[in-house]
Amino acid sequence: MKSGSSIQVGACTEGIVIPRIHEVKEIDISGISWILVIEKEAVFHRLITSGYHNASAAGSGILLTGKGYPDLSSREFLRLLSRHEVCNSKMIFNPLPIFILVDSDPDGMAIMSTYKYGSMAQVHRNADLNVPSIQWVGLQASEMMSAASHTNMPSLVPMSQHDRKKAEAMLKRNPSFAEDGPEPAWRKELQSMLVMNLKAELEILYELDGGMEGWLDRKMSKLC
What we know:
By secondary structure, the protein is of the alpha/beta class. It has nine helices and eight strands. The chain has a single domain (about 30-220), classed as Dna Topoisomerase Vi A Subunit, Chain: A, domain 2 (3-Layer(aba) Sandwich), CATH 3.40.1360.10. The protein has a four-stranded parallel beta sheet, sandwiched between helices. Strands 3-4 form a two-stranded antiparallel ribbon. Strand 3 and strand 4 (about 95) form a beta hairpin. InterPro entries: Spo11/TopoVI_A, Spo11/TopoVI_A_sf, TOPRIM_Topo6A/Spo11. This is Topoisomerase 6 subunit A/Spo11 TOPRIM domain-containing protein.
């Protein structure tokens, strides 16, 4: 930090407040294999408490949450991290993989879009805040629907009228979800939610074999 202090992210057991980028002097990401952005603060704290950032099958990583829709500090800091590169086993430098984990509901999808493409309310700042490299690790209601049919998992949650109106508005007005837009999988997921009239919350992953941590291991190991 420019104040002369330093923050050792891997040593934190409760998380730290995301610093403003003007306070950051340099970032050392040696030993870090991935970044996971998490929609919900409660899920973030569960993973911090379990030590997932140090125990992941994909290697050590950084957990980050904007506590729902991200503020400017969260987006600025993630953008800063996204511009750093790491050296892989073949001694090739690549951007640090960044994943995002959100509820499979319209708000979760909108939050993911905000991180990757920006806010429609702050178009003038999006170029300095977007993280185009972010990868969607989950959650997909369509995937959970299939899993639920073979297990004793809790059922998915019916969509509310608010959910349906928001999904329909996103499909019509948000360029990220347009028919000819950059994210056909996102559009398909929203459409599936509307057809099934169901959504999935992250907490459903607690009920899977291996819990949320095991599910993340399986997902991220394939992507890292």
